[in-house]
Structures are given as structure tokens and as C-alpha cells.
Amino acid sequence: MSHKAFLRARSPEHKQQRREAILAAARELALRDGVRTVSLGGVAAAVGLVKSNLARYFATREEIFLELAAEEFRGWEAAAVARVAVAPGPESVLDALVETLDERPLFCDLLSHSATTLERNATMEAARAFKLQTAGSFAKISAAVAQARPDLTGDEAGELVAAAAGFAGLLYPAAHPPPVLARLYAEDAAVAALCFEFVPVAKRMLRALAAGLPSLRGEQGDSANGG
């Protein structure tokens, strides 16, 4: 990251470059230290800005990370759709969802914070942009899953995709504990079972959900109609 102080961006092109520099700095810090630890001041220092000047580009730190989350959704969408399209079997379709999430640690970290913190301190404009990207990515991945798994309705495919993202937000952080907990798990067999591997657990949970969803058809109108 560059610590060189910037002159004030005046043209639209320069402002866009500044936004991209801020996002790149936040991404690097989050990958290194985790989303939770990255402050607005830390991002400002990384790009050579006074903290108050960041408001010209992002109203809050949460808006920075919501935009990064939108970028990550686009990346997951592209990877998941491509992987699902060549999946050799029904279970491999679901495995593709989990594996493409596991390959994106920053995305999983962002998912774990999106509903609890990031969405709670954003402008309407930033929230709308993030939700539109989320909805669009879910729709495209769900369509790919439904095409590869004709045994599932469109609604069921959508529920599986949403569940995969939910598992990532919930299970990925637990499977990658901070140093103190990692040492605790290594030293204390009584609690070591609480640390698990994300990929096999998430795959098993997603397969169980896929197996059970058809049995619930008729309890929701959309699923009963083939969604």
C-alpha cells in the first residue's frame, strides 16, 4: 500500500481512482488483520489521507466494506456459476458452492459481519447497491444450480445458495479461530471438538438441506408451484 499523501481529487476520474485506492487498502488490511480490526483511520493512513477526508468518498467504514462485499459477491458468482456448470454429479453441484466460498476467505469474513454490523451503518444508497448486487448474484447462481439439479425447484435452488452463503458467514469464522482460541483448542481436548473444518461440515449440511427440501413441498406456495 502506498503511504504517499494524495492531492485533493477534483476530476471524476481522479475521484474514482481515489475510491479504488481506498478499497484496495481496506481489502489488504482486512486480508491481513480481519475485517473486525480495520478502522477508518487505518484505511485513511494506508492511502495517505486525513481520516475526515475519507467522507468525500465513503460516509462510513461500513460502506467501504459493503462495497468490497459487493465485489466479492461478483467474484463468487462468476466462480460458482462456472464450477456448477461442469459439476459431474448432483452432490458435486453443492460441493462447488462450498468450495468456491472456501477459496474466498475475505468474502466469508465479510459475510460474517454484513448483517450484524456492516448493514447497520450505511446510507440508503450504499445499502441499495449492496442488496441489488446480492440479489443479482443469488439469482444467477440459483439459476445455475436449478439447471444442474432438475430435481430441485427454482425456490429450492435459491434456498440452497442462500444457505451456503449463510454457512460461510457462520461456520467459516468458527473454523478459523483467532490465535488465543487456536492455542486453547490445541491444548485442551475437552473443547477441541468445537474447532472443525469448514468444507466437510458445510458440504454435509448443504447436502442434508438439499435432501430435505423436497419433502417440504406444499408447505410454501412458490415451492409447490415449481418456483
From TrEMBL:
The keyword Cell inner membrane does not apply. It comes from Amycolatopsis endophytica. Signal peptide: none annotated. It holds the Pfam family TetR_C_34. InterPro entries: Homeodomain-like_sf, HTH-type_TetR-like_transc_reg, HTH_TetR, TetR_C_34. Keywords: DNA-binding. GO terms for molecular function: DNA-binding transcription factor activity; transcription cis-regulatory region binding. Residues 39-58 bind DNA. The keyword DNA-binding applies. This is AcrR family transcriptional regulator. Transmembrane segments: none annotated. Residues 16-76 form the HTH tetR-type domain.
